[in-house]
Amino acid sequence: MRVLRLTLLLPFLLIYSCNNQDGKGTAQIAGIKSQVIKNFSNSLFADTFTVKIIGSGLDSQKLDFRITTSKGKEIYHVDIPSASLLKNYDATIDLKKKQNQATFLQSEVNRFFDEENFMEPGITETETPDKNVPDLVFYEELKRSGLNGFFYRLGKEEKIYIGWSAKENKVKPYYNCCK
Fold it and tell me: Which of 9, 19, 20, 105 sits between 20 and 30 A of 171, alpha carbons compared?
């Protein structure tokens, strides 16, 4: 019975914590998290992709994105400042109110791992590099390996495509579009 009450209460607590205001008038959304398990650095063992909002206020918060192997080794980490995401969308979305900013950041976390963001494979046999490829050698390596890719947004028009370099034993960008 206690578990049932907690299960019913959890959505209300989450909504309350997301809508609750601190003394500075900023919505508290730190801790919002999304996670997915996908093949990325290895075709046999899946990696864990995690994104969460960290920080104490919307002005200082960031999206913390990490990829960890099946053995628990972190192979990628990037922090995306929420202020830069908000700035990129300010002209098209009403983000003047703190609650709208909080809702926007929550939706960014919720959409971070949309199925379309996972490229299987990262680069197909028929694709050819263009001016947005930062490293032609790695591009060709990823194309030959057939490993998967992933992209995330830094703004409305800017996406970073990443893949695993077995040669360098690390995650690298293979396509940056379109600043």
Answer: 105
List, for residues 81-102, the tens digit of each pLDDT value: 988 888 776 656 666 777 888 8
Which residues are 164's β-sheet partners? Answer: 171
Question: How many angstroms separate the CA atoms of 23 and 110, rounded?
Answer: 27
The sheet carrying 74-81 orders its strands as 33-39, 46-54, 62-68, 74-81
Asked whether the whole model's pTM tops 0.70, one would answer yes
Question: Long-range pairs for 162-165 at CB < 8 Å and ≥24 separation?
Answer: 162/76, 163/40, 163/122, 163/123, 163/138, 164/40, 164/41, 164/42, 164/75, 165/138, 165/141
Q: Number of C-alpha atoms within 13 angstroms, CB side, residue 152?
A: 24
What is the rounded CA–CA span in Å between residue 162 and residue 36?
16
Mind listing the pLDDT tens digit for each residue in 4-26?
333 333 333 333 344 443 334 34
Cβ contacts of 169 within 8 Å, gap of 6 or more:
none
Residue 5 parent element (H or E)? helix 2-19
